[in-house]
Amino acid sequence: MDTQSFDMGARGGWRTDCAGMGSGNALPPASAKRRIEMVDLQFRFCLRALGFVGSVALAGCGAAGGEGEGIATEHEPLVITTCTGAAISAAVAAGGVVTLNCGSSPITIQVPFTTVAHSTQLSSAQPGTVTFTHLSTLFEVTSGATLSINGISFDGTGHGSTAIHADEISTVQNVVLSNAVVSNYSGGLTFMIGGGSSLNVSNTTFQNNTGAGFASPIYGEGGHLTISNSTFFNNRNTSGQGGAITALGSSLNVNGCTFMSNVAAIGGAIYSTLAPVITNSTFAFNTGTLQGGALSLLGGAQISNSTFVTNPSPTGTIRGTAQVSGSIIYDPTASSAPCSLTGSSNIQWPAVTPLCGPGFRFADPKLGALANNGGPTNTFALLPGSAAIDSLTGVCPSTDQRGVLRPRDGDGNGSFVCDVGAYER
Q1: Whole-angstrom Cα distance, residue 10 to residue 254?
Q2: Separation between Cα atoms, residue 318 and residue 80, nearest integer Å
Q3: What is the pLDDT of residue 353?
Q4: What is the DSSP letter of 74?
Q5: Is the pLDDT of residue 342 over 70?
Q6: pTM of the model
């Protein structure tokens, strides 16, 4: 097999020959710890360049500087303690399990554009302390690769900055996406997918992001979007669709999420062209300046045990048709625009507009304030005397939005019956 040499460039600022890897001349002066880290990255890239597949241990790090022990590289976890953008980019590009151990103090790192061609799991050893910034697309996930991110925040620094653009599966957990400014179609600190790709997001907060056109914090053009236990707060797309999520030909499944104070011209929280499945979720104080205070649906939807509170729009809370069960629509600001909803065991309040459709009744749900009532996202608790308590007929999800088991005896009469809405009393 021919040896190859290549320039690590921004990935470390040094050049190496794969045939001579591990020799003292291949590495710049540095501490033994830093040399070991750079040899590790160097060896990973050599394996890729040589087309090697398998488990290999790099021994003899002492030859590089007289200190250290042999380290396993391919398919072995890599821990980065020198948390520079170049080092992170190189490790992600090489693939494998990468953990950032940057210390307990908050740190912000500008990371350059990185192509993810090999499956990578990237996490922080101290979740919530590491924030990535970037000026353009950060991670481009190519076909055949997957990317998982856990415990890292992203903060936008300018127009058109996209956090993840994926052709294949990406998984995002425990992430805060904030303060991005985005532009039409290009995304901007947006998680973008297309084609047959999938994006799975859980326990993530999207806040204070702004955009135009189709630039939402999550943007799908084909593929599959699965969003759970996440919060979307104060995201604005005032001249376009989807303050929080735009799904153009993408299947969308939302479970256990809270959408609060998001704004768009069409679909204050979600704009979808297919039929999203929405379960155990809360939509509060979102605004659709033209259509759909909470949702704008071109292909219908299936909505179960969700709570909608004060989502103003000239066309009402939900624009489009949907099959709705066990849900609450509370909107004292509602216009006279009729709903196009059907379903069962739903509550609508107050009685200022006609009923949304079959399966709805006027009744006061007596909601508390939107608050942390347990679980990963905020909810509206049901106060004593709520018409939603123990009033659902038929099947309900096994838990509520907080993860509390259903059903419970919410009114104390000895019968265990599911409550209407996202909260089980």
Answers
A1: 39
A2: 47
A3: 82
A4: T
A5: yes
A6: 0.81
